[in-house]
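Continuing the batch. This is chain 6 of the set; chains 1 through 5 are on the previous pages. Same settings as before, nothing changed between runs. Recording input and output for traceability.
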Amino acid sequence: MGPTGAAAEHGRNTESEFWQRTSLPALFRHWRQARKNKSRSLRVQRFGDDPLRYLLVVQQRLRDRTYTFGPYKEFVVREKKFRHVVDAPMKDRIVHWLLYDYMLPIWQPRIIVDTFGNLPGRGTHAAVRRVAAFARSPANAWALQIDISKYFYSINHSLLKARILRYIGDQDIRTLLVNLVDSYRTDDQHDHLFAADSAYRRTHDKGMPIGNLSSQLFANVFLNDFDHWVKETLRVKAYARYVDDMVFMAGTRAELLDISAAVVVKLAEDGLVINPRKISLAPAAAGIPFLGYIVWPNHISVGAYGRRRYHQRLRQHETGGRDRSEALQSYRAMLSHTGTTN
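Output for chain 6:
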């Protein structure tokens, strides 16, 4: 699969650029990015004992075109629900940052302003503020929320490769991206959630590891065409997406019912399924639960789960004999984003 269209533009002088991107100073910078906020990890500590030795190995394999991703460690974390997380080795996290830094300038200008998640200046709080701005308008009296069932596990590899390679001209980067996608496949643990004749069950090569930096960017790129379709074909003005959480707002319930039907069909073309239990259609005045917050027409509050966790950590810190200072600081930062939006 060779570069097409604008990809040729990005393919000029690629040998020297790839050499620069795999230089030791560049890889060391990516190592510092990858280890940020992960100092307790044994993998990070082991790598940090002699980073130069490990980085030389990574550099050699990249430049020899023999680099392979993995092996992955898999574990389950419990937040609101149990989540299956894939832990990549430190060498891979460095290469993820290399690929992210290469792809972001290419893709960010092509991603609509109402797409959020793992983009500079477009995190959770920016997404919540955007939905709050929509909710303030009397023209957006109703809110439709849609969540894709097992989004990361469902992404078709063939479609993903075609989309992430669209504007990439550097052959070494293209090879790394293809190898990264091929390094992980969803197993059968979620098959029972999908019909036997569904695209999910019929597709063998699918899925991205939750937890990878690259997967978060890929998730936005995969739905970028969909985002443009929502804005340019459906002409939805009040729309925001944070990875697989979508909010549509309009003046009437009937408008959003039509949008919902069209969206379900459109996503099905990519093999993505919407669980009917994950479609919510309600007046904005009833509050819009989004990313741990509740967005109201005139203010933002923390959702019940966040409040419960905050009080639990506070009790543990004050009477349970456990140091929860770090967690409490995070929850207080979350609370600082609540209040009136007028």
